[in-house]
Amino acid sequence: MSKVALITGVTGQDGAYLAEFLLKKG
After folding, report:
1. Residue 21 near residue 10, CB atoms below 8 Å
2. C-alpha to C-alpha distances, 18 to 1, 4, 26, nearest whole angstrom
3. DSSP secondary structure of 1-26
4. Residue 26: exposure state from Cβ atoms within 10 A (0-12, 13-18, ≥19)
5. Domain tally for the chain?
6. Is the pLDDT of residue 18 over 80?
């Protein structure tokens, strides 16, 4: 989860989209 939080913090909405994609992908 720390990586996800870091990604969302750095890239904003793009990071949130990427994080959601990664979560769905597993």
Report:
1. no
2. 13, 9, 12
3. -HHHHHHHHHHTHHHHHHHHHHHHH-
4. exposed
5. 1
6. no
| Domain carrying residue 17 | 1-26
Q: What's residue 25's pLDDT?
A: 83
Token pair 């904003």: residue: 12
Report the distance separating Cα 9 and Cα 1, nearest Å: 12
Structure tokens at 19: 């994080």
Average pLDDT, the chain: 71
Amino acid present at 25: K
